Amino acid sequence: MLALPPGPPGTEFHASLRVADLPACARFYAWLFDAWPKEWTHRYATFLRPDLNLNFVIVVADGKPLNHDTLYHLGLAVADKAAVIESYHRAVDFGVAVEKPPRTTWKGTPLHELWLRDPDGNLIEIYARLTDAELATKPADELPAYLVAGTEPTG
């Protein structure tokens, strides 16, 4: 694995999802990306975010089975912990399904994270990498630290 030749010189990330409900998903992704679709027909909607080098397309399912178990999740990085918390409040205000409330996780890749579900059930991770100062505060038990009061699991 370490002796890899150079990969393609990418300049944009593109993802395309088949969806059951194009209007609901277009509304969700317009909110998530803070951008209206560049193009939207009865068959697809295309979202471009040049600042993220993103070209994201949602396409009607055409009766094809939607295999949600083949896509783990999509992710959107934000600036910092405060932006993760703000994203949570925006999601709640917008009526988005929150899968996991904002928290700081330590195991695996330490992150501030928030997990949402789009209208078709796809997982969306909103995350921010921890600063060196935040990494220095890692608890011995490595349990998640919930970032918004009242969102901790009960039980």
TrEMBL record:
This is Glyoxalase/bleomycin resistance/dioxygenase family protein. Gene3D superfamilies: 2,3-Dihydroxybiphenyl 1,2-Dioxygenase, domain 1. The keyword Cell membrane does not apply. GO terms for molecular function: dioxygenase activity. Keywords: Dioxygenase, Oxidoreductase. PANTHER family: CADMIUM-INDUCED PROTEIN CADI (PTHR41294). It comes from Sandarakinorhabdus fusca. GO terms for biological process: response to cadmium ion. It comes from the Bacteria. InterPro entries: Cadmium-induced_rsp, Glyas_Bleomycin-R_OHBP_Dase, Glyas_Fos-R_dOase_dom, VOC_core. Residues 11-129 form the VOC domain.
